[in-house]
C-alpha cells in the first residue's frame, strides 16, 4: 500500500482474478472436448497439430493459472484485509511474490506461443503442398515444451540471490527446453524443403514467425547462460528478446491464422494486396523497433525507466526504435481490413476449397450464422491429413486402401487444374467420398496409366507410400490391388 | 424411474409449441440479434467474440506502446511523468498478454478445435450451459473494468498536469 496507494491496483487484481477463472473454465471445457468428443476414427495421433498444441496449451492453463490466482488472492488479503504474506518487514519471504508469479509466468509464455505454433503447423504444410514433416516429433516436442515449461521459472530470477545450485539447475533446464523448440523449427523447415510454396499472406506470416521466433529463441538461449544473464537482466536486451518471441512469434502466427482461416469463418477472403502491405510493413517496423533494443540493452539501457540522459549514448537507437514503432503501428492497422472489408468480397457461405486445407475442418460446412448442429452425420476419419488422403487413396470393397496417384502426380494435376478445385467434396465427410466424381473424373486417367498398370501386374506399387501395410491385415494387400 | 409410454417423436406436422421452462436461460432459438450473441452457446460465435475483443484491445495496447516509444524517442523527454510511464508500460504488458494474445488464442481454439476433431460443439454445453460463454463474459468484465479504470485515472492526471503546467508557466 505504501508504493501504490490508489485502488487502481485492486481493480487490476480483481480483473485478472476473473480472467483466471475464465481461463480455467475454458481450459476444462476444451480438454474435455478433445479427450471425449472426437469423431469415430479420430485417434489422438490423427488429430491436426493445431488441436494437439491447443490441448497442451489448455493443460498449461489448467495448472499454471491457479498459481497466479493464489498469488492474487494473497495480494488481495495483504492490501485489503491487513495480511502480511508479502510484507517483508513483518518477516515475509521477499522472493515469495517472484516465485509465485514466475511459476505461473513461464508456462504462460509457452501457452501464448504454442497455439501460434499450431496455427503455423497448419499453414506451412498447406501452402507447401506437403504433409507436415515429422508429425509425431511435432506432437511430442509440443508436449515436452509443456512439461519443461514448468521447470524453468527461476531463470527469471538469476540475480535475486537464489544460490549457485539453483542457478545452475535452472540454467541447465532452460537450455534443455531449447531442444524441443529447435525440433519444431527444424520440422517446419523440413516441411518447406522441396515443397511447392505459395507465398500468400498467411504463408508469409508463418514464415515470419519461423524466422523471427528463431532470433528470439537464440537471444533466449543467451539468457539461459547465467553469467551473461546477469549482465542482461532488466535491460532492453530482455525487452528485445520477449518481443521477438511474443510479437514476432506468437502474434505473427495469429495474424497468419486470421488470414488463413478467414474464408473458412466468414466465407470470403481478405485482400491479398493489402495483406502483403500489412505483412511487409509489420516485418520492417517490427525489426526496426526491436532490433535496436538488443544494442541498447547491451549498452546498458535499463528497462522500466521513463527517460535517459543525453550523454548516455542511447539517443540514436531510441529514435530509430520509435520510428519503427510507428511503422509497425501502421502495419498492424492493415490487419484491420477485416473490419472494413466486411461484406465487400463476400462470395458465398461455402468454405473456400481453393485453400486446399488438409484437415477435417475444411471438409465441413460451418457458419456461425446458422445456429445449432450443422453436422448431421459424424465423419469417419481413417487417416492423418484425412482430406488429402481422400484425393490420394481410395478404398476397395475390402476397405483396404489403394493408391490412386502419387503426390507428385497429384501436385501437377492440381496446379494444372487449379480452377477445377472447387468441385472437390464439401459436404459432410464420410468414407464414401472416395468414389466422388472429382476423383473419378480427373484421376481415373492416371490410374489407367499403362506404366502403373504394368507395375501393378508385376506386384510393384508406385507411389510415396509403397510400403504401407493394409489396415486390415487379414486381407492380402497384393490381392486387394487387383480390385482397382 | 419413469416409463415413457407415448412416442418420443411428434407426429409429422404437429406443432411442438413454444415452452421455455428456463426463461431467459433457455437455449436461444434465433441466429441473429444482440441477445443471441450475448447468450449464445455456439462455440463458433464465442470464438468470434473472443477474436473481436482481442482486436479491440489490440488498439488500446498499441496506443500504450506508442506512448512509451514517444516518451523514449528523445532524451530527457517530459511527455509522461514517471508515474504515467509506469502505468503505460504496465497496462501495455497486461493488455497485450491477457487481453490480446490469450483471447485470440482462445478464439482460434473455440472456433476451430471442435471442427477439426469432428465434434458437434465443445463439451460443456448441455450439462453446463455456456461454460465458455461464462469465461468469455468473465474476460469481458475484466476487459472493461481494468483499462477503463486505469485509463480514466491516467487521463485525469495527465489533464491536471497539463493544466498545472500551463498555469504555472505562462508562455512569453
**Physical arrangement of strands within the biggest beta sheet of chain A:** 1-2
- The portion of residues assigned to helices of chain A is 55-70%
Major sheet of chain A:
2 strands, antiparallel
Pattern of helices and strands of chain B? HHHH
Strand percent estimate of chain B: under 5%
Radius of gyration of chain A: 26 Å
Distance between the termini of chain B: 91 Å
Which spans of chain B have pLDDT < 50 for at least 5 consecutive residues?
Answer: 1-8, 126-133
Q: Estimate the mean pLDDT confidence of chain A.
A: 76
Q: Tell me what portion of residues of chain A adopts beta-strand conformation.
A: under 5%
Oligomer: heterodimer
User: What string gives the helices and strands of chain A in order?
Assistant: HHHHHHHHHHHHEEHHHH
Taking the alpha carbons of the first and last residues of chain A, their distance comes to: 78 Å
Class by SSE composition of chain B: mainly alpha
The geometry of chain B reads as elongated
Q: How many strands, which pairing sense, and closed or not: the largest β-sheet of chain B?
A: none
Helicity of chain B, in percent? 55-70%
Number of helices of chain B: 4
What sort of overall outline of chain A do the alpha carbons produce when their principal axes are compared?
A: globular
Structural class of chain A: mainly alpha
Tally of strands of chain B:
0
Which SSEs are present, and which pair or pack?
The complex is a heterodimer of chains A (484) and B (172).
Chain A: H1 8-36, H2 49-81, H3 96-128, H4 135-148, H5 164-192, H6 201-224, H7 226-232, H8 236-266, H9 272-299, H10 315-333, H11 337-340, H12 386-392, E1 393-395, E2 401-403, H13 407-416, H14 437-447, H15 450-457, H16 477-481
Helix pairs in contact in A: 1-2, 2-3, 2-4, 3-5, 3-6, 3-8, 4-5, 5-6, 6-8, 6-9, 8-9, 9-10
Chain B: H1 34-39, H2 43-72, H3 82-116, H4 131-168
Amino acid at each position: 500500500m505504501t508504493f501504490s496507494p490508489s485502488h487502481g491496483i485492486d481493480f487490476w487484481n480483481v480483473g485478472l482474478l476473473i480472467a483466471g477463472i475464465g481461463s480455467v473454465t475454458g481450459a476444462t471445457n476444451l480438454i474435455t472436448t478433445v479427450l471425449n468428443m472426437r469423431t469415430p476414427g479420430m485417434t489422438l495421433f490423427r488429430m491436426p497439430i493445431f488441436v494437439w498444441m491447443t490441448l497442451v496449451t489448455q493443460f498449461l492453463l489448467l495448472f499454471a493459472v491457479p498459481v497466479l490466482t493464489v498469488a492474487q488472492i494473497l495480494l488481495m488479503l495483504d492490501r485489503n484485509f491487513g495480511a502480511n504474506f508479502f510484507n517483508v518487514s513483518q518477516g515475509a519471504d521477499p522472493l515469495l511474490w517472484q516465485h509465485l508469479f514466475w511459476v505461473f509466468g513461464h508456462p504462460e509464455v509457452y501457452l501464448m506461443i504454442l497455439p501460434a505454433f499450431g496455427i503455423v503447423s497448419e499453414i506451412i504444410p498447406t501452402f507447401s503442398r506437403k504433409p507436415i514433416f515429422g508429425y509425431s516429433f511435432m506432437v511430442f516436442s509440443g508436449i515436452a515444451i509443456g512439461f519443461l515449461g514448468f521447470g524453468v521459472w527461476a531463470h527469471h530470477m538469476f540475480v535475486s540471490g537464489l544460490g549457485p545450485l539453483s542457478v545452475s539447475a535452472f540454467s541447465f533446464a532452460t537450455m534443455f527446453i531449447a531442444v524441443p523448440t529447435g525440433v519444431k523449427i527444424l520440422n517446419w523447415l523440413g516441411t518447406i524443403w522441396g515443397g511447392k510454396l505459395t507465398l500468400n499472406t498467411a504463408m508469409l506470416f508463418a514464415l515470419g514467425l519461423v524466422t523471427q521466433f528463431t532470433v528470439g529463441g537464440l537471444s533466449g538461449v543467451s539468457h539461459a547462460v547465467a553469467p551473461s544473464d546477469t549482465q542482461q537482466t532488466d535491460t532492453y536486451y530482455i525487452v528485445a528478446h520477449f518481443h521477438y518471441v511474443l510479437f514476432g512469434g506468437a502474434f505473427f502466427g495469429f495474424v497468419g491464422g486470421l488470414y488463413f482461416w478467414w474464408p473458412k469463418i466468414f466465407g470470403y477472403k481478405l485482400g491479398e494486396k493489402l495483406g502483403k502491405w500489412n505483412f511487409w510493413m509489420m516485418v520492417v517496423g517490427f525489426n526496426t523497433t526491436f532490433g535496436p533494443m538488443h544494442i541498447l540493452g547491451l549498452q546498458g539501457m535499463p528497462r522500466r525507466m521513463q527517460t535517459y540522459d543525453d550523454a548516455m549514448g542511447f539517443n540514436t537507437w531510441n529514435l530509430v526504435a520509435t520510428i519503427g514503432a510507428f511503422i509497425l503501428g501502421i502495419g498492424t492497422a492493415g490487419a484491420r481490413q477485416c473490419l472494413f472489408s466486411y461484406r465487400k468480397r463476400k462470395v458465398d457461405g461455402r468454405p473456400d476449397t481453393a485453400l486446399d486445407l488438409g484437415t477435417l475442418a475444411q471438409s465441413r460446412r460451418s457458419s456461425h450464422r446458422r445456429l445449432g448442429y450443422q453436422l448431421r452425420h459424424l465423419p469417419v476419419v481413417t487417416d492423418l491429413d484425412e482430406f488429402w488422403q481422400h484425393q490420394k487413396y481410395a478404398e476397395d470393397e475390402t476397405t483396404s486402401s489403394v493408391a490412386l496417384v502419387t503426390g507428385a502426380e497429384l501436385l501437377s494435376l492440381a496446379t494444372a487444374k487449379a480452377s477445377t478445385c472447387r468441385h472437390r467434396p464439401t459436404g459432410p465427410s464420410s468414407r464414401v467420398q472416395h468414389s466422388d466424381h472429382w476423383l473419378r473424373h480427373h484421376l481415373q486417367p492416371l490410374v489407367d496409366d499403362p506404366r502403373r498398370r504394368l507395375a501393378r501386374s508385376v506386384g510393384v506399387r508406385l507411389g510415396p507410400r509403397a510400403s504401407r501395410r493394409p489396415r486390415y491385415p487379414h486381407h492380402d494387400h497384393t490381392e486387394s490391388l487387383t480390385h482397382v | 424411474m419413469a416409463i415413457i409410454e407415448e412416442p418420443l417423436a411428434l407426429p409429422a406436422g404437429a406443432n411442438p409449441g413454444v415452452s421455455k421452462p428456463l426463461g431467459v436461460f433457455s437455449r436461444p432459438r434465433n441466429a441473429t440479434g444482440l441477445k443471441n450473441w450475448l447468450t449464445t452457446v455456439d462455440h463458433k460465435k464465442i470464438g468470434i467474440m473472443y477474436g473481436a475483443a482481442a482486436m479491440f484491445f489490440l488498439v488500446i495496447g498499441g496506443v500504450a506502446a506508442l506512448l512509451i516509444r514517444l516518451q523514449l524517442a528523445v532524451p530527457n523527454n517530459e511527455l509522461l511523468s514517471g508515474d504515467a510511464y509506469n502505468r503505460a508500460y504496465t497496462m501495455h504488458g497486461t493488455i497485450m498478454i491477457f487481453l490480446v494474445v490469450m483471447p485470440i488464442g482462445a478464439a482460434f481454439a473455440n472456433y476451430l478445435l471442435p471442427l477439426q476433431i469432428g465434434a458437434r460443439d465443445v463439451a460443456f454445453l448441455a450439462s453446463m450451459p455456456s461454460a465458455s460463454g461464462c469465461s468469455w463474459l468473465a474476460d469481458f468484465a475484466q476487459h472493461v473494468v481494468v483499462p477503463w479504470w486505469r485509463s480514466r485515472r491516467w487521463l485525469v492526471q495527465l489533464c491536471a498536469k497539463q493544466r498545472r503546467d500551463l498555469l504555472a508557466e505562462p508562455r512569453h
